[in-house]
Structures are given as C-alpha cells and as structure tokens.
Amino acid sequence: MGRIVVEVMPKPEILDPQGKAVMGSLPRIGLTGFTAVRQGRRFELAVEGPVTQEHLDAAAQAASTLLSNPIIEDVVSICPLEED
Predict the structure, then answer these.
(1) Which of the two residues, 22 and 84, has the higher pLDDT score?
(2) What is the span of the domain harbouring residue 52?
(3) How many CB atoms lie within 10 A of CB 68?
C-alpha cells in the first residue's frame, strides 16, 4: 500500500493565530532562537499498490479542490511517503 502526503499552509499574508500562540509559548519552556512559527495541515492519502503519477495527479486535484481553501491556503507539497 502506498501513501501520498499533502501539506497545506496558510498563505504568508494570512494571520496564523495558532502559529503565533506556539511562538509565544516556546520561550516560556526554554526554547529560544526561533523567529516565527506557521502551523499548517498534513493529509496522508492511502492507495492500493505503489504510488503512480496518476495517483499524484489525483492527489493534486483533491488538494486544490477539497483539502485546501485556495483563498487563504497554499498547497506546499504533494509527494509519495517513503515506506521503511
């Protein structure tokens, strides 16, 4: 069974309150040196057999029409998940 990972992130000009909350919490737990945090979403799509170009094309269509809101989000990655 193959899997495809689709990653969706807020567009740079869109406010990210969850990322901002994480950024504010990092110094409180002693983690410094980070300058920004953006929180996105990750989807894993399973397919029968190995991932083909047709699967990737279908994942791209799903990403642009269902998995993301193109007004406020960018699809930043669509790739097969390497199996161990």
Answers:
(1) 22
(2) 2-14+40-80
(3) 22
